[in-house]
Design brief:
CATH topology: Arc Repressor Mutant, subunit A
CATH class: Mainly Alpha
Mean pLDDT: 94
Number of domains: 1
Shape: globular
Low-confidence stretches: none
Number of helices: 3
Radius of gyration: 11 Å
Largest sheet: 3 strands, antiparallel
Oligomer: single chain
Strand content: 5-15%
CATH architecture: Orthogonal Bundle
Order of helices and strands: HEHHEE
CATH superfamily: Winged helix-like DNA-binding domain superfamily/Winged helix DNA-binding domain
Length: 73
């Protein structure tokens, strides 16, 4: 189990609720921010941290990057 701070946990829970659990159902940072109801900078920092911890994966796309959870959290 990876150590997560409260904001990272909130982001992961929001991603689960949005269904971002596989590469075919990725969500943007904006989608996640709206679900979390937290400032965009705070959510973006948590997303970057979670990518570094290998909890989520970032997919670079033409318009906005998408994110999904890797494995079971």
């Amino acid at each position: 189990m990876v150590e997560m701070n409260p904001i990272e946990q909130l982001v992961v829970n929001a991603m689960k609720e949005l269904g971002a659990t596989k590469d075919t159902s990725i969500k943007t940072a904006d989608d996640i921010m709206k679900k979390c109801n937290r400032p965009k900078g705070m959510v973006n920092n948590a997303l970057v941290s979670l990518v570094q911890k290998n909890v989520i994966k970032r997919i670079a796309r033409e318009k906005a990057s998408g994110y999904y959870i890797i494995g079971q959290v």
